[in-house]
Amino acid sequence: MNKRILIILMTLAVVAGGIYGYREWNRGLEQANEVKAEVTLTAEELFKAYTSDEAGANQKFTDKVVQVSGTVREVNGGNGSPVNVLLETGDPLGAVVCEFAADMTIELKSGAKTTVKGFCTGYNLDVLLQRCAIVE
User: Fold this and answer.
1) How far is CA 32 from CA 9, 37, 40, 67, 129, in A?
2) Do 49 and 81 lie in a common domain?
């Protein structure tokens, strides 16, 4: 009798573990529209923070939801690839790149003012925000 209960409990544990593993494996990444922004600033301020002190800016912004406002320089991508909205920073060689999911429709044009929030992943000549959402 005890052996039978042990087998039933082990089977239930394996099934429960399998269900948990399956859900975790298929869980999507958290999107910025689901989270409150931790930091709010302009695209120029964010870019300047990284160009003046990258290590300090990494501590303040990396892996945090950052909300930036600014003027759209360019929109590119789409058709199955991520959509990138580049925000002006006052530096012709650098931008704040806001990456949106490939299936999103972005109706922004160059010169438009916008506010975007996303997960900051750091600086590599541009500041990159991923999994972005437009703030209404």
Assistant:
1) 40, 8, 13, 9, 10
2) yes
| Count of the separate structural domains present in the chain | 2
Q: What is the mean pLDDT of residues 102-119?
A: 86
Residues 11 and 1 in one domain: yes
Q: What pTM was computed for the model?
A: 0.76
Question: Looking at per-residue confidence, does 42 or 136 come out higher?
Answer: 42
**Whether the Cβ atoms of residue 68 and residue 117 lie closer than 8 Å to each other:** yes
Return d(Cα 37, Cα 43) in angstroms, integer.
Answer: 14
Return the structure tokens found at 103.
């299936």
| Strand duo 96-100 + 81-87: pairing | antiparallel
Residues 6+ apart with CB under 8 A from 127: 46, 47, 50, 89, 94, 95, 96, 97, 120
